[in-house]
Amino acid sequence: MATICSSLARGRAMRLTRLDGCGNPVPGPTGSLVTKGFVSVTATPVYADIEDITQTDANGDNCIDDQSDPALRWLTLAMNFCLIDPDAINIITGDPLVVDDATPTPNTVGFRIDSSVSGSANFALEIWSGKPGQACGVGGSEQFGYWLYPFVVQAQWGEYVVENGALTITLTGRTSAGSGWGVGPYNVRADAVTQTPEPLLTPIGESQHVHFETVSVPIPAAGCGAVELPVPPGP
């Protein structure tokens, strides 16, 4: 069995997918969004406090010295955007969109931060990293690092500054266990034999917060605004 190792640089694209309260993808006309308009995504693991159990004997020597194993609670994700896409904000935070009076179909022109819903949305986050200096793979295909955070919740707004300079906004969220992502609604990897684009090989497990693999399926095209996430085909 061979192991594929990757040196990665740059963030090539990001995809957001709407999820329901159980972490299942929500098909619909604005269920998915691909963007290149981000500066960085910082993932910070959060662990439960380690529990120490110690006891000295009557002579003052250690009788019991034990420590619990590290317990991962979640990863905090800080997403810094240089492109303000109202649909992306809506998918991440749940904040409502602002539309104009164009007919017959209004245009989405902004958003409102609404304390009654802000932070109520659930979403999945995928990121593609570049692989510099690579030799092309089977059939001349380019390889990428593929990061999946299948269940992200509790988004919050960070500080932003309007000034004589570039405006960026930061939104944070945290991963959650109990994802309903399964193998996902997208073809993100290639079959090792046929090179046919396929979903994940195995479903995301109950306790799994992050998935990474090296892939060769082309990165989806970025755009402005959300696009349809089709209903998955029946059995």
What's the SSE blueprint?
Layout (H helix, E strand, L loop, with lengths): L8 E11 L8 E8 L2 E10 L4 E5 L5 E6 L4 E10 L4 H8 L3 E3 L8 E4 L10 E9 L13 E14 L11 E7 L13 E2 L6 E2 L12 E5 L11 E3 L6
Antiparallel strand pairs: 1-2, 1-9, 2-15, 3-6, 4-5, 6-11, 7-8, 9-10, 10-11, 10-14, 12-13
Describe this structure in words.
With 235 residues, the protein is mainly beta. Helix content is 3%, strand content 42%. The strands form 4 sheets. Strands 1, 2, 3, 6, 9, 10, 11, 14 and 15 form a 9-stranded antiparallel beta sheet that branches. Strands 4-5 form a two-stranded antiparallel ribbon. A two-stranded antiparallel sheet has the order 7-8. A hairpin with a 6-residue loop joins strand 12 and strand 13. The radius of gyration is 21 Å and the shape is globular. It starts with 8 loop residues before the first strand and ends in a 6-residue tail after the last strand. 26% of the residues are buried. The mean pLDDT is 93.
